[in-house]
Design a protein that fits this description.
This protein has about 325 residues and is mainly α. It folds into two domains: about 140 residues, no CATH class; about 130 residues, no CATH class. The chain contains 17 helices and no strands. Helix 3 crosses helix 4, helix 3 packs across helix 7 and helix 12 crosses helix 13.
Length: about 325
């Protein structure tokens, strides 16, 4: 094994060179170091801080067994010392598995958790630029070699065995989707939309709205039509009210299904003014929850794992 100045094995190896002691097997030394860390972990550490603290000896051992030479890093422009490879690897592992794929976000989250920084032996998180440069400069070969060596250590620790089976489980998560792009070419299945409005009666909700004053200006659109439009906007997954109205202007047949039979689709301010004069939509729609639920449950092609908007879309 080659002497590495940056590793915590420094004093141990110096004693070996002086023939004062015999070098213990690296795994034994690492286990001893982990046990010592366990006893000294502050009570203020949360689970992630504990993981970072206990993982450091393992990362150091992998680098040691790879004969990795720590490059010299001059202090930055503010005089702060360079960050060790061990800390940067731990940050990358933390970023990719627990907090965020974004280096900018990882930097912000780390700085918001002082105990994590302490476990990483840092006073301040490295900038997103530093993390990006580290990954780029080390390259694919470095990380491939690192994880191959880590796998060998897992075998040595007895955590995995040659004939062990590996089961990979998964859980549904919300996708990080660009909704603006996916909605740019939205197309509604008008047959399903027609069936929905033919089946679901909006009268119970419309009846909860007080009639307009006879002396006031006559409303151009009925309460039922306004409620149908709101249902159309929400159930079809439009990003904004303006986008829903624009779609109806471009598709007169869909506008007719919603209730704008004359093709005169209102503007966004007109809809907003209507909504200011009626009770809150959630309060009105509460009387329609059962009928809407019954409609979707009766549809053979409706999947309750998908967003409602998928049901009305044509792909």
């Amino acid at each position: 094994m080659i002497y590495q100045e940056y590793l915590p094995f420094e004093s141990l190896l110096q004693q070996v060179e002086k023939k004062e002691i015999k070098l213990p097997f690296p795994l034994e030394y690492t286990i001893e170091k982990i046990e010592k860390i366990k006893k000294k972990i502050p009570k203020s550490y949360d689970n992630i801080a504990r993981i970072l603290a206990l993982s450091r000896p393992v990362v150091e051992l992998v680098l040691f067994k790879r004969d990795y030479q720590e490059p010299e890093r001059a202090p930055n422009s503010r005089g702060r010392p360079g960050i060790s490879t061990t800390s940067l690897i731990l940050i990358h592992l933390l970023s990719k598995t627990m907090i965020s794929d974004s280096y900018r976000q990882a930097e912000r989250i780390l700085n918001a958790h002082p105990t994590w920084l302490k476990a990483l032996d840092l006073k301040k998180a490295p900038s997103h630029t530093t993390m990006s440069k580290f990954r780029k400069n080390r390259g694919v070969d470095f990380f491939d070699s690192y994880f191959h060596q880590l796998t060998e250590l897992l075998f040595a620790f007895g955590l995995i065995k040659e004939k062990d089976d590996v089961i990979v489980d998964s859980a549904p998560i919300e996708a990080s989707q660009n909704f603006a792009r996916s909605n740019s070419g939205i197309k509604i299945n008008e047959a399903k939309l027609q069936e929905f409005f033919n089946t679901v009666d909006f009268t119970p909700a419309a009846n909860l709205i007080a009639p307009a004053c006879e002396l006031g200006r006559k409303r151009k659109y009925s309460n039922e039509v306004i409620l149908k439009f709101i249902a159309f906007e929400k159930l079809c997954g439009f990003l904004s009210r303006n986008q829903a109205l624009t779609y109806l202007k471009k598709h007169p047949s869909a506008a007719k299904i919603v209730g704008f039979s004359s093709g005169d689709v209102p503007s966004t301010p007109s809809i907003n003014n209507y909504l200011k004069r009626i009770p809150p939509i959630p309060w009105l729609m509460r009387v329609m929850v059962d009928s809407i639920t019954e409609f979707f449950e009766s549809q053979a092609d409706y999947d309750d794992h998908d967003p409602l908007s998928f049901f009305f879309r044509s792909f």
